[in-house]
Amino acid sequence: MHTALAPCSILLLAGGRGQRMGGQDKGLLSWNGQPLIAHVQAVVRPLTDDLIISCNRNQAQYRPYADQLVSDAEADFPGPLAGVLAGLAVARHPWMLVLACDAPLIDTALITELLSQANDQAHPAMIRQGGFWQPMFSLIPCALRGDLEQAWQQGDRGIQRALLKHPVRALEYPEGDRRLSNFNTPEFLQ
User: Fold this and answer.
1) Which domains does the chain have, with CATH numbers?
2) Angle between helices 108-115 and 36-44 (to 10 degrees)
3) pLDDT digits (tens, 9 = 90+) for 45-68
4) pTM of the prediction?
């Protein structure tokens, strides 16, 4: 089923500050008996031979879930674009799928639809839910690395703003699609 998809690196972003979780490392918080990262990794592992995790702490705990670990080039958790740039620097395939570590309800169908957006024009793809972009669910051509680094140098710290400087393919999903839920507050873990 997955053979028609372009080879793709997959980056799981787990390098945030975890402010809404009291500073805890979100990817390692337990949900249904496993760390959040384990739920996401279980879905994407069969889809890539290049699974990258961006983490700025607890590397030993993340290592079993990844082929490669990266960290932000700058200290003090500068934002998700820093993790994306670190991932693009080591990605082994022409495309890199970006996902948050705290979206344990994703499924293979959603990921496969994102991966199927790889195209000859090297246009990124991003999920849009209820009219709002969801940059933590995006597919980025690695050829955009230079452009994204330039956006970083110009002060952009968000993935969405940097990607929207390019033609982005939107994958529309309904507002209530639980697969796109980010477990980023203690209430979500209940």
Assistant:
1) 2-189 (3.90.550.10)
2) 60
3) 999 999 999 998 899 999 999 999
4) 0.89
